[in-house]
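The passage that follows is intended for readers who have already worked through the single-chain material. We present the inputs for a multi-component assembly, then the predicted structure in tokenized form, and finally a short commentary. You are encouraged to pause after the input and sketch how you expect the pieces to fit together before reading on.
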Amino acid sequence: MSRPTPLRGVHEALGATLTDFAGWLMPLRYGSESAEHNAVRQAAGLFDLSHMGEIFVTGPQAAEALDYALVGYISALEPGRARYTMIVNAEGGVLDDLIVYRLAPEEFMVVANASNYPMVAAELTERAKAFDAVVDDRSDRYALVAVQGPRSQEILATLTDADLGGLKYYAGLPATVAGRPALIARTGYTGEDGFELFVEGADAEPLWAALTEAGEPYGLRPAGLSARDTLRLEAGMPLYGNELSAALTPFDAGLGRVVRFDKPGDFVGRAALEPLKDVPPSRRLVGLVATGRRVPRHGYPVVDAGGAVVGEVTSGAPSQSLGRPIAMAYVDDGPTEGLAVDIRGSHEPVEVVDLPFYRRNK
Amino acid sequence: MSSIPEELNYTKEHEWIAGVDDGLTLTVGITAYAAEALGDVVYVQVPEVGASIAAGDAVGEVESTKSVSDIYAPVAGEIVEVNAAVVDDPSLVNSDPYGEGWLFRVRLEGDADDLLSAQEYAALTSGES
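Having made your guess, compare it with the prediction:
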């Protein structure tokens, strides 16, 4: 039985197609997922992301505990700022990718993926034991609503006095939105400007209603997980379980920059990762654009001109922004000309491109 | 509840078939129920004109943002016409599944006895949703 979010009634009233995602009953789409995707690129979209986990780490040594537990340099983070980071195992394998917000000098919020947060909370608790810090999983208490797209700031500004113009990308600000306390974060997973609003579960429905009304003149529409996936894919953003797994290190995923060897002290994974930092990986995460119209999908083999398997697709979808199917894939080092994806037995040509596929105009 | 026109026949694989009463050339498409379940259709592959098909053969595919499904031949026969418009604009499957979104026409060889009536198909899909 999938777990509903506090917004389940809203999704049902909107006629959403609901789906199980990581044990949660989530809106897959409300109508046309292509229209939802395009709304986020051109105007704004409203997302229920209440399945994400919020784990708080507080105390005099909270920063040191996170420096030890995660690969990032968390103690260097200014209060009010956020960082994309990862938690790895002792072998350097990625257990989850995270965003850490420093809410106050001794208070951090770690946002983890729905499929992983109970494990992340348990790992953080274990890793923080030697520190004067408390780990508290508050995922059940908080809902997360995101407004993403170029009109997001105008829409949100009608509901809050907070200084949105002064809020930088990857920063967070406690504020009041539609009369309710919210943490406003300028973060997202779409490749657009936008905000993520962390609120108490009971405030999610009134907040959603207020945003829907405020966004109407700007073309805001509710958007489901299907649009979220195609948006993040176009933006070249990894999804845990597709591009990231415990079998891969951050270096394997081309995200070695998140591992901060320059921070003081030991951290879980340092010994395993340090020797890898200057070694070029034998496989690389690349972007693929299909020449034809059939879509390369998760798990499909990538083959070279001779038909030998040289890689595997991790995510693929039709791209609204490019008008052609796109995919991310791990591909062996070697010539990139003449590659194809084995789509159910037929080798469909693909072009290897740099990520991301889509970059917004700033 | 998606529409299930009375005058058509259906398969368990969510195809509709028109023209069974004439017994000559049948038109095949996918149902509104299937189109809604798939989401936005982005690619349609239809069989070649002249191809000889047996009932149950995979003769094409319908691909949406999130998934891909085979199209099965509902009857045995020869493909006499395919819908070039739906190949060019696969969204016709979503916007007009029983009309402009038709997929192919087949000249029936043998019978079409195993097809479902509208009532039977309605019972099938109400059990699935």
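Commentary: DSSP finds eight helices and 20 strands in chain A. The first strand of chain A starts at residue 3 and ends at 4. How closely did your sketch match?
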